[in-house]
Amino acid sequence: MSPSQTRTAPTTTLAVDYRTPTVDDGARLWEIASDSKVLDVNSSYSYVLWCHDFAATSIVAEVDGRAVGFVTGYRRQSDPSTLMVWQVAVDDEVRGHGIAATMLHQLFDRVNRQGMVAMHTTISPDNIPSQRLFASVAKARGLRFERRDLFAANAFPDSHEPEDLYMLEPEIPEP
Q1: Are 3 and 129 in contact (CB under 8 A)?
Q2: Which string of DSSP letters, residue by residue, matches 70-128?
Q3: Model confidence over 139-156: pLDDT tens digits?
Q4: pTM reported for the whole predicted model
């Protein structure tokens, strides 16, 4: 399904568990990303490595003992108070149940206890569902939601679309 297509409301409630990824999840995360047909798929090794080295800043959604979604992220070196979300993916079979938003909220709650108070991500200009997802998370959390140009298409060696930076940050109090 294209990211620009509208999803219907869920008709059943799923029992979803949210947890920290383990190395054993790496292959399944790669499959979910690959099956999405919209994500830039990294090497299978990178997903295993991600589950090992960035588990504290990532989350997995699981239904009946099987990973069905994930968010990978890392603490930005240039700003340790910011979680940089690398990828968000949910298996087609369980889309429309709010899993992506729940993963983002639960992960943000966890990293907030580690001192991360902002969340950044990159989204291509035509990925309206991802833009809406992050806007809804910002609104629900009372965070400022801003977009900036980040990487133009000519920054990439292939036919990659531009990537915009989306920032979910605490409101700055008026002086």
Answers
A1: yes
A2: EEEEEEETTEEEEEEEEEEEE-GGGTTSSHHHHHHHHHHHHHHTTT--EEEEEE-TT-H
A3: 999 999 999 999 988 898
A4: 0.89
